[in-house]
Amino acid sequence: MTDVLIIGAGLAGLTCARRLHEAGVSCRVLEASDEVGGRMRTDVVEGFRLDRGFQVLLTAYPEAKRWLDYKALGLRAFEPGARVWCGDDGWQEVADPFRSPEKLWATMNARVGTMQDKLRIASWQRSSGDGEWEELFSRPETTVLEALHARGFGERMIERFLRPWLGGVFFDAELRASSRMLEFVFRMFADGDTAVPRLGMGEIPRQLAAGLPDGTVTLNTPVARVYAGGLTLESGEEIAARNIVLATDGSAAARLSPEVVAPDWLSGVTVYFDAQQGPVRAPVLVLNGTGAGLINSVVEMSAVSRDLAPKGRALISVTALGDPAMPDEALVAALRSEAAGWYGPEARDWRLLRVCRIRRALPVIPSPGLPEPLRTKAGAWLCGDYTATASVQGAMQSGRVTADAILLT
Asked: Can you give the pTM of this predicted structure?
């Protein structure tokens, strides 16, 4: 009989397995798809490496620092700040003055808010590291938008910079996420880099899986039913185990256990284009500060990591929030047309590589917090970002906390 069967080879399941392996406890990880990673995957298309939606790693995440070898991932960092398209006011530069002092003058003169707004961000950044980060999840809770107003930010700063930036972080232009997540994410941005692995975000779960003994992870193995003491695969095979861990996303967990309530989901769509010459030519996040149109952000991914595109080609990522109610062909045409208003008519010639509609980008968590061991009445353990915080940190920490609880039983 297996000590622990883990269903799902996403970040939560793999971290759970790594912690158990570290403690000398045998486990198996069953994954329904053909690759590890869950929602974090990188596909190779015509020599381009395309993440399944625009994703980044915040290197300050405590759990990521514990389990990942950043050097081996070959992390490529974004410039600390953003470039903002403001329509009639053109391009505006917003940089971190502490890490990019050479851009201080441009930032101070950027038409995205008042001088007081920019000083508020600098003050917030300087104080964001005070105290233990875990304490952030015990603070009074409101929405992100209400918290920004409470900090005194003006409408121009919110609409031109904070809404598109944080809307992209939380996949929600209405900024309805918890203020606790705002404080946590802001601290992570301030304490470390925003980065992607040299070969794409899929290298993160691949590295986690590589730290497990051969044969631990079994792919293409969907589970049909979970019960006390074991499970049944869709193939009909039954496997007994002392512990079962549901490390799938919340919706998949709800299908396997009637005690789990499937979360609502926030969605987005990322469209990848190929161009002979990129429009940005810098590893910087480009935001739509106009409050109009479909585009929320643009990133020239090949300027972040040269290895994400074939030599001599540019990989452009264009992201919109939600799930636009139009066919892919119409969506692509609309994004090209909008981008042409930013970068000129050459944007209309960008060659489509892939449309990634991410209908389960992030689970809606009304009151996020630190993960705790969760177990159903039937005895299955639950972990995943939906049990804690909708983030890489939340997924990995929930997996580790679950493993620690199993080790104590």
From this structure: 0.97
